[in-house]
Design brief:
Conserved Hypothetical Protein Mth637, Chain: A, 5 strands, 5-stranded mixed β-sheet
Length: 80
């Protein structure tokens, strides 16, 4: 699965699974229209959010910010 081919817009929906063994893209949920991403950081003190932004910025080679869902598994990200 190539995240670059599905992120043509400025917004990207993701479902985050924290405390995984490694950070990576697991798949895509067609019903929610969101990428499922595992994050190798705990959902404590914003660690999982920072790891998610770091990972996606590296994958997309673009700046990524969380627009909504800071305390939720379902997030909307802004890709610049």
């Amino acid at each position: 699965m190539d995240i670059n081919s599905l992120s043509k817009t400025d917004m990207l929906r993701v479902h985050v699974k924290a405390n995984a063994r490694e950070t990576g893209i697991i798949g895509y949920d067609n019903e929610k229209k969101a990428f499922i991403i595992s994050v190798a950081a705990p959902a404590d003190k914003d660690k999982a959010n920072k790891e998610l932004v770091r990972f996606l910025s590296k994958e997309l080679k673009k700046k990524v910010r969380i627009k909504s869902g800071l305390k939720s598994r379902e997030k909307v990200l802004f890709v610049e």
